[in-house]
Amino acid sequence: MSIYLALPDARYKDSYLAGLREYHEEGRYLQDSVEEAEKDFSAYVEKEKGKAHGENLPAGFVPETRYWLIDGNECVGEIGIRHTLTEHLLKIGGHIGYSIRPSKRKQGYGKLILRLGLEKAKEMGFEKVLLTCDVTNEGSRKIIEGNGGVFENAIPNPGQPDKARFWIDVV
Q: What is the CATH number of the domain that holds 108?
């Protein structure tokens, strides 16, 4: 089976929704609503694609190209590459955010999705990207460092664990 990044697509509806439900069951409420996605998945997919063009973004959000990690015909994770950084993203969020659905974690997908995402960032013209993770998230730290992340510092994130900041050269 091949594993690759794909732009959001309605053909992955069932596995994407299953993953979204898993995130919510573990208490992670991403900005995506299961109900919204289920109601009209085609519209949901178009909204996800539109983020790359800055369409219908909430206040303070920047354009972001979203990809889904597909294994065979199943969506196992997602990654977003932010085109620019706000002051908040420079401190806390970084250029790239990724997640692997809970039932697929600890199977090598995290390292792979970031490697593939870095290739996409290079194609988009990035030379260097910032990634962050909670200082308490050892798994994410290993994934970032395993993909060439160089630790810069850790900064306070009020009300939450401090954020570790890493830079990766993608040239």
A: 3.40.630.30
